Amino acid sequence: MRPGSRNLSAASSSSSPESSKKEDHHAVVSTFDLFSIGIGPSSSHTVGPMRAARIFVGDLVAHKVIDQVAKLRVDVYGSLALTGLGHGTPSAILMGIEGETPEGIDTSSMQARIDNIHRECRIQLASTHAIDFNPKKDLILQYGSSLPQHPNGMRLTAFTKSGDMLATNEYFSIGGGFVVNDQTQMAHGENLYYKQYDSDKAAVARRDQDLAVATLPFTNALDLMKVCEREGMSIAQVVHANELQWRSATEIRDKCLDIWKVMDGSIRNGCLSEEPYLPGSLGVKRRAPSLYRKLLRGLYPSTDLSPSLQSTATTTSTSSSQQDLVRDGEALRPRNGRKVKKLLLPALDYLSVYAIAVNEENAAGGRVVTAPTNGAAGVIPAVLKYYLEFVSEDPTNDIVDFLLTAAAIGMLYKRGASISAAEMGCQGEVGVACSMSAAAFAAVMGGTIEQVENAAEIGMEHNLGLTCDPVDGLVQIPCIERNALGAVKAVTAAQLALNEDGAHRVTLDQVIETMRQTGMDMQHKYRETSLGGLAVNVPLC
Fold it and tell me: Pathway of this protein (predicted)?
């Protein structure tokens, strides 16, 4: 950084996001950091870069220097560069520079705005300050370079009219829409912005989240199981108790239902789409609509939610279970002692169509929930939808329990390994989503803590070594089908665990560490670079 330039963060550190195992820090993060609403096709390559750009221009505004900016340069490195075009990374960055967020952007007008920026070579910083900006020259994909801290790196630099550097920052998109900044190193070796756009608030939130703050802290699966045993709680109840630090029981319930509403909407939109093909060079045909017509005839009679879920997703006062939630404060909390359910599995094709529908919406840039990433966004909604349609007798509470249980497992992977395909390959995306779904399905089926942990372990064990090799950098082949297989594996893993007593040889902690080691040993070309595997063996024409 040149003398006189401004770095928009706290004291510098060079610690790598993938370095320490953070032995002294718990795994607890908010459920609503793991599950957040955004746009496709990628949480690491679309959502994360948009957030990073939004944070940068937000800091320019906060430091009252945005009016001094005359030129902006964006450099994109590593996996972000190599698969960026197929993942929509440049477009996401442009929208972030204009002040948009993945949660709030109007997807219907996004492409027109991007086209206008390219045509006019002008961009609005934070929607307030217009400068000349030619995306072909000022947004540079550095195909042959990587920043040392993480494969998904980007640098934004602002210059004055005289050409002096005014501000610069490096950001790293580490999966699931989480954004790391190398200059905001916090306690315990972590430096996550999480989903906060205000850097000052993000720093405070990170410092506050230490061992003394978490109500029921846990560092790994063994710790989590001990907490459950000591407190007489389910996994969902432990997560709920920790979540109460940040929001009320009513807010937790409502946010879970909001997340499910978006998940269910993405299933519906994918099934009802009238677009014959997905965007991009591959000409991939949408399959969810035809599968829907064959398998789900009558399940979606209109564009409304299916009758069995309409009340849980759109209102909080119609069903008897929801009336109980309003009357009884204790009912807002996840319950213990679930009745053990037996399941004669209906056709697993239902799982496949649900997952495919979500990931086709994601591939088309539609609105989805990172669960825990966009590339794996179809697995958890598919398994939860399957459970709600064929098993559930109490949808509202089941949605909350399912999502909180899944979140706990996601936290363990995030702390113990990574949910970034650029670090772990697809085992860190679809593999983690499969593990989360298996655990959650086992939990709402009435499984014991041991059976839930076993389900999560099985879900990952048979995804170990899964590579990320998207053809032409698009989140389509093999990603869409892979989500369908991940959902089927999750239910199968849960059923295997539920048919045993919970005793098993391989633990969840062992399989998480194995996943981490496998990801670190995996060749670079198999970690979201499109330089190996299917990406080089499938012809593009």
Answer: Carbohydrate biosynthesis; gluconeogenesis
pLDDT, position 396: 96
Query: Do 432 and 492 reside in the same domain of the chain?
Result: yes
DSSP-derived 3-state class of residue 476: coil
- pLDDT tens readout for residues 239-294: 999 999 989 999 999 999 999 999 999 999 999 999 999 999 999 999 999 998 88
CB contact at 8 A, 196 and 103: no
Phi, psi of 72 (to 5 degrees): -130, 135
Q: Does one domain contain both 145 and 225?
A: no
pTM as predicted: 0.83
**Same structural domain, 254 and 126:** no
Q: How far apart are CA 305 and CA 479, in angstroms?
A: 26
Chain-centre distance of CA 447, in angstroms? Answer: 26
In a domain, 306, yes or no: no
Instruction: Give the domain-ending residue among 140, 173, 206.
Output: 173
Q: Percent helix, strand and coil across the chain, each rounded to 5?
A: 50, 10, 40
Alpha-carbon gap, residue 408 to 230, rounded angstroms: 17
User: Does 533 fall in a domain?
Assistant: no
- pLDDT tens by residue, 158-176: 999 999 999 999 999 888 8
CA distance 165 to 168: 8
Residue 148 and residue 200: Cα distance in Å, rounded? Answer: 25
The predicted pLDDT at position 301 comes to 43
What pLDDT sits at residue 146? 87
Tell me: do 112 and 238 sit in the same domain.
Answer: no
| Pair (365, 277) in one structural domain | yes
Within 10 angstroms of residue 179's Cβ, the number of other Cβ atoms is 29
Give backbone dihedrals phi and psi of 530, rounded to 5 degrees, phi first: 60, 30
Per the structure, the count of domains in the chain is 2
Q: Does 310 fall in a domain?
A: no
Report the relative pairing of strands 129-132 and 6-7 from DSSP bridges.
unpaired
How far from chain centre, in Å, is Cα 495? 25
Length of the chain: 541
Please name the residue ranges forming H helices in 39-88.
48-62, 78-82, 84-87
At 336 the pLDDT is 76
Same domain as 75, residue 142: yes
Instruction: State whether 491 and 380 are in the same domain.
Output: yes
Where b means 16+ CB within 10 Å and e means fewer, 509-536 reads: bebbebbbebbeebeebbbbbbbbbebe
C-alpha 293/C-alpha 376 separation (Å) is 24
Distance (Å, whole) CA 163 – CA 156: 15
Please report the pLDDT score of residue 182 as a whole number: 60
From CA 241, how far away is CA 450, in angstroms rounded? 20
Q: What domain range is 49 assigned to?
A: 45-173
Give me the residues paired with residue 141 across strands: 76
Per-residue confidence (pLDDT) for residue 197, from 0 to 100: 64
The parts of the chain modelled with pLDDT lower than 70 are 1-24, 182-213, 296-332, 342-346, 541
